[in-house]
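During the no-cost extension, the postdoctoral fellow (Dr. R.K.) reprocessed legacy sequence entries with the updated structure-token encoder. One reprocessed record is reproduced below for audit purposes.
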Amino acid sequence: MDDGFGVTRRSECDVWSFAALPANTPRERILASASHLFCNHGFAATGIDAILARAGTAKATLYNHFRSKDELIAAVLDAEGQTWRRWFFDRLAKVGGSAQDRILAVFDVLEDWFADPGFYGCPFINAVAESDTGNPVLRRAADLHKDHVLTWLRAQALELGVEDVAETTRSLALLIDGAIVAAQHARDPSFAHTARALAASHLSATLARSSSRQ
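Re-encoded structure tokens follow.
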């Protein structure tokens, strides 16, 4: 279903962006409009007037729900993070096999995400990259989001039995972030495939070292 702004809204089960979910209240319309504009045109470059025009609401309505642009940005990041993680982890929960299979499946899911015509990169990476003042609100939001991903990766590394869980988790997170940024800049989903191959090579070498020391 089209929302009248050229955005196709889908059911929650297959949506990775809050901006694509149905907006039924003034607050949701403001959040969805702000999310679309922030994520596609930049957090700093998007003004309140543009958000109001897209949402079709008055300035008083916006400030009744959000006291400042920073508070609106924080709410957008929270909504985007929750929506993306629900989609991402739901996809991974359907993957069978070993911990290594699940880890490598991450990059298959990422490739699907990158190939979506609406893909705009990671809003957390984008927001932090735009912030030249070290905005603590953005940093906290990005850290919270990343913690969810790191916790999942750490659990897989533990199950896999690698010798250095922290380093494996860190390496995989680096490959994920690198693939996201590269795919966004180049508009090339195949960076996920490249990152998958690197992850497979890293895991094989790590497991071989662990095995040789037993």
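Residues 95 and 102 are 6 Å apart (CA to CA). Residues 1-9 have pLDDT under 50 and may be disordered. The remaining legacy entries will be reprocessed before the final report is submitted.
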